[in-house]
Amino acid sequence: MRNPASIALAVALAAASAFATLAAAPKPPDVRASLVSEKAALVPGADNWIALRLPLPEHWHVYWHNPGDSGVPPRLEWRLPEGADVSAITWPAPKRIPFGPLANYGYEGTVVLPMRLGLSGAAAASNRVRIEATAHWLVCREACIPQHAALALELPMRAANPPDTAAADGIRAALATAPREVPGWSAVIVRQDDARLTLRVSAAAGLDLESRRWEFFPDTPGTLEPSAEQRVSIDGRVLTLDLVKGGVLPGPLDALRGVLVGRPVSPADGATVAIAIDSTRGS
Amino acid sequence: MKRSIRSVLALVAATTVVAALPAAAADAKIGAPAPGFTLTDTNGTPHALSDFVGKVVVLEWTNPDCPFVRKHYDSKNMQSLQKKYTAEGVVWLTINSSAPGKQGSYAPEKWNAMAAKQSFGSTAILLDPDGTVGRAYGAKTTPDMYVIDASGVLRYAGAIDSIASTDRADLAKATNYVAAALDAILSGAEVATEVTQPYGCSVKY
Questions:
Q1: Distance CA B111, CA B31 (A)
Q2: Beta strand B91-96 pairing with B57-61
Q3: What is the pLDDT of residues B73-87, one digit of tens each?
Q4: Which of A112, A207, B42, B191 is paired with B154 by a 20 to 30 Å CA distance?
């Protein structure tokens, strides 16, 4: 069951950056980065989902767009044909990765970071489209190593309904945990002082709140203390989060934006949910 | 302006608790006296912060194996800053808070060899293996930078500059917050940017 147009055409020239050593530097992890596509062909005018795939060895991680206490997120420098356009990354829900008294927000395992590929004009009219990028990522265990790779993805065009590639499930799984604005959910900052704030989140009916562990990840670095405990209480359809502010941004916070992630306590409790939170939309 | 940096209040019992242990409460506050400390340098000489009253002091958290630190040292950016400002009377203390056995934890002789080879321009390299001083300041990354004025008041905390990367090519494009804070303090002006989010590797506590 091999889709010739997908991974086989993604060329990864992984090149760990020169890492001159003063002392025992860690052995760089072998991260075989690739560009992958959900579908075996591209459709002009459709949402063509592609992704940067970073299969990480055990114990290594890369970062969310807000990396927490340290680190930097992966980024891509694109070289695109005329008429091709790649969106920013749609970031899947991050995990908190503690390190001593500090903590990061990021990903472990096989990391899939989806993006939309849009086609118009010359690109939409051609038979095949080839896109190229240099991907840069910082991969850390205890030590951090910057790596980069020249990547390419070439796919044929098709009018409609191309079949899935082997990467399709991974891309869909990543998109399923990307934050969404869900009707009926709202949030508001109900209290704050120099050190803490209380976020009250009203949940729409339906989802079982009690069977998930809830954790909030702020969009802006420094707004919350990444390593601090988050106290979450549930009363009916209201989640109350007692959060420790970061010391970086001066004064009271006018707003809190980010993602509220609910991970099932046990696999039988369903899927991870990720709700986009904007306290200025609360009531 | 007194404001807590990365402070953490005492924990209280919770309905649902998600997290690791919080970072130690940082005592450092912008606009307040910088937390005092005494650390021993790589030549065995103890230095107290109070020894430097009357001088502007820079605290630079470092780890020579961190790629963000290497960006600033391999390019000589850090050494240039150290030399420029120590020539103007600033005390520049390079501090390592790596726990024994963790990345960046080196014997004093090794530090001195590195400093000679790379032409460090700091006043002293201070070793903080139990992380006490790092935690008191809330140091999170390498580099993480603090500027204390001649009266001992903390005036800047955060990133060395405005571009969080390991790429040397970004240095020319970045705004250096430490240089800006030092220039302001040395000329008697207000520090325009007092706190930024530091970037780099985590301090290896």
A1: 33
A2: parallel
A3: 999 999 999 999 999
A4: B42
